[in-house]
Amino acid sequence: MKVLAGMQVSTLMEPQGLGGNSYGSGIPTWKLVIVSPTLFFKRKKMKYKLTDGTIELNGKTLFRIQALKNFGNVKAGDLGGYIESEKNLSQENNCWVSDNARVYGDAWVFDDAQVSDSAQVFNNALVFGNARVYGDAQVFNNALVFSKAQVSDNAWVFGTARVLGNAWAAGNTQVFGKAQLENGYIE
Description:
Blueprint: E1 8-11, E2 34-36, E3 48-57, E4 60-67, E5 79-83, E6 96-97, E7 102-103, E8 108-109, E9 114-115, E10 120-121, E11 126-127, E12 132-133, E13 138-139, E14 144-145, E15 150-151, E16 156-157, E17 162-164, E18 168-169, E19 174-175, E20 180-182, E21 185-186
Parallel strand pairs: 5-7, 6-9, 7-10, 8-11, 9-12, 10-13, 11-14, 12-15, 13-16, 14-17, 15-18, 16-19, 17-20, 18-21
Antiparallel strand pairs: 1-2, 3-4, 4-5
């Protein structure tokens, strides 16, 4: 059997002999060969890792993150906020969760979005583009915060609500249901 350069062979078995198999006599039977296709799939360099620092929140374990390389305003070695798993924060672009911010459940932060201070993003919420969520703000359920939108202070965005464009939800505001705040300010 030929193994291509860059491939790692985990298990390689020789033919099990001739004859006596279900294909008729004289045809060799091969056992499964498991090959790691490192030649074909190369994992991109990760920008952060999960550390051993954890907190418990609503029955979930969240891990503090640490930057592995410089990007945006983040330097290699900087500690970030808390996420439940790598599915909550993209390894690409300049998105980041900092301070004591928390992202968990099926929430996802990507593009160049920032979640900071003590803000929380959870359930199925998405924060992306150049959006900012900070202060004690919460974005949850199926809410979207994107473009250059900001959610700050004690504002909540939830349900299927959207905050987008140059919008800013601040103070004790609640944007919920099917509401959409676009290019405006609400406090």
